[in-house]
Amino acid sequence: MNLHQLLQLMIEVMLPISILVGAGALWPVYYKEVSGKTLRIQLNRLVLNLFFPAILFAIAATTPITPELLSVPLLVGIGSLLSGVLLYLLLYRSPLGRGMHNGTRAALMVSGMFGNTFYVGVPVLTFLYGPDASRYAAFNDMLMTMPLVWSLGVWICTRLGPPESASLHPPIWRLMLGIAPIWAFIAGALLHMSGIVFEPLIHAARMIGQATIPVMMFVLGLSIPWRDLKPRVAILGVTAVKIVLMPVAVAAVASLLYVHNTEPQHAAVIEAGMPTMMSALILSDRFHLDTEAAALLIGWTTVLYWFSLPVTVWLMH
To answer: Which CATH class is domain 3-222+230-316?
Structure first.
């Protein structure tokens, strides 16, 4: 990728996302009728129960499932597990985590393992590989991120977090039953496999789902504690694992598993380097972890991602 294409990436992808994130950051300053936290929670609910399920249904209903496509969640999943092992060693078995509360350790570990692979991933991947590349982000989110977050991620929160979190461990099946995007994705996949084409419904779902990414980028701006973004060794260490070491690990695994790395494997490397998922705040709130640490990691990985992304894309292309 040459300098001109990198400049296009900055203008066409990074600029609009930055504007939306900036708008979310400034909104509570000028509009104080509703608190930023309340607004964040309500917009999250709107996206997770309407916009996000709609776009996932549309993608799943029009996407053939192939081994190449499935290599994306496979590789990113391996990268998440490898990062989890490294983060455990850093936070629980090294001087980096010495004296740190278990609620902070668990929050940072979960936040460092899982990225914002759909909301940030879709605009980046579609710029690089065309409109159909949204399937990589969707299948990665549904087949890797959500299942691992709500199984292994919950286990980390309740078993490696503070003692009071252990009593909050809910049955995994109950958690999965309440996640609307998963059911929308399954419905879309079943519709595609049935051979039935109901274009008006798919078109309606696609149109509704177009609000997903702009709204969530606005919510991202609401979620970052901008005034507290001061350099901290532990936060920056986990940030380096998330946006630098994890994509490197996925690239290495892809080279071992695949003779020739093609577009899906490249997409997996890009996905692996995404900034921290915003669900880290939901997990931290729900299981009484350190929400401030999770929010700081979201902030630092998001800010530094705009520097790591051009380097990653340039090295791969």
So the answer is: mainly alpha
